[in-house]
Amino acid sequence: MTAEHLSRTDAATPAPGTSDATHLALTFENNRLASELFGQFDQNLAMLEQKLKVDARARGNTVSLRGDDIAINQARRALDYLYDRLLKGASVESSDVEGAIRMALAADDQLVLPTLERKGKMTLAQISTRKKTVIARTPAQDAYMRAMERAELVFGAGPAGTGKTYLAVAYAAHLLERGSVERIILSRPAVEAGERLGFLPGDLKEKVDPYLRPLYDALYDMMPGDKVERAITAGVIEIAPLAFMRGRTLANAAVILDEAQNTTQMQMKMFLTRLGENSRMIVTGDPSQVDLPRGVTSGLVEALSILEGVDGVVTCRFGEADVVRHPLVQRIVEAYGRRDRSPGPAEPDSNG
Question: Which of 57, 94, 171, 263 is disulfide-compatible with 299, CB 3.0–4.6 A?
Fold first, then answer.
């Protein structure tokens, strides 16, 4: 970026809904990268306009921004971060633009984040493996990724589509590749009663694969397929149904418990006490999607309450705004959230 001019302008046409708008002109040195930054037909700038309510107009390798002071600075931080990505050889997709905008907005929402300087550049947390680098796309993801780096036990709680499981598997693959752990252990309570496995065809792996498919999908995203298969065969990546965890001590391992809202209180305590030396444990789940029988308390819900404030345990909570799947998924989650928060319909009068 070679020039950056910030000035007040009354003569210029203000952005819609603004008066006495701030004008900021950003010029980027590399014309090719500037074109990638702005997007095909300036689609990335259009996203800035829509999300931040600024007016963004490109001419060559310069973009002119107009809007209120806060929105202009948010747009500047987002563009600055995305251009730095391009300089480092990374691509910029629409999801990256959306993530940069979310993080820029978070800085001005006064969120407690170690990753954002209010008036400076944004630095987003990332997890790198040989096959892929994952970068935080929401403030909650950023906090979650940094928590996994510093804490031995991390809870990721929140709705579907927020990246809880995907990021946990990415971090486990990262630890394995750099030699920080010797194995990855994946567990899920979908087959909590061990004897039920006998009614399913195949060996143990084939019995539990359908329940662990989301974890496998994330693994194959992070590691070459043949390496995943060899690691499973060698026991470096282990499939451990929750019912089979009792009595074990899990040392030198990255341990993931997914769908933890469906553990019972006893199962959760049993699982958490498996943590051994030089291990990291990540527990993910959605407390609003408990499938346990009526009257049975979720082990995840209880653990989040009991372990709050315990040294070495970090809880990261995701909300509806953190959904990073298709935009419609976020709207669906929000709609269900509104339903759950509103009083239900009155029960019909049985004497009717």
Answer: 263
Q: If DSSP codes are grouped into helix, strand and coil, which group holds residue 155?
A: strand
CA distances from 281 to 145, 174, 183, 292 (A): 13, 14, 12, 23
Using CA atoms, how far apart are residues 91 and 325, in angstroms rounded to an integer? 19
CA distance 318 to 324: 11
d(CA 70, CA 284): 35
Q: How far apart are CA 231 and CA 245, in angstroms?
A: 20
Q: Tell whether the model's pLDDT for residue 328 goes beyond 90.
A: no
Rounded Cα gap, residues 172 and 183, in angstroms: 9
pTM here is: 0.69
- Segment 3-15, tens digit of pLDDT: 443 333 333 344 4
Which two three-digit tokens encode residue 27?
Answer: 């010029």
Q: Residues 205-243, buried b or exposed e (16+ Cβ, 10 A)?
A: eebbeebbeebbebbeebbeeebbeebbeeebbbbbbbb
Residue type for position 352: G
From the list 20, 107, 97, the residue with the least C-alpha distance to 70 is 107
Amino acid identity, residue 135? I
Rounded Cα distance, 223 and 172, in Å = 11
* Whole-number percent of the chain with pLDDT over 70: 79
CA gyration radius, the chain: 24
* C-alpha distances out from residue 138 to 96, 124, 177, 305, 320, Å: 10, 9, 25, 24, 11
Evaluate whether 297 touches 227 at the Cβ level (below 8 Å): no
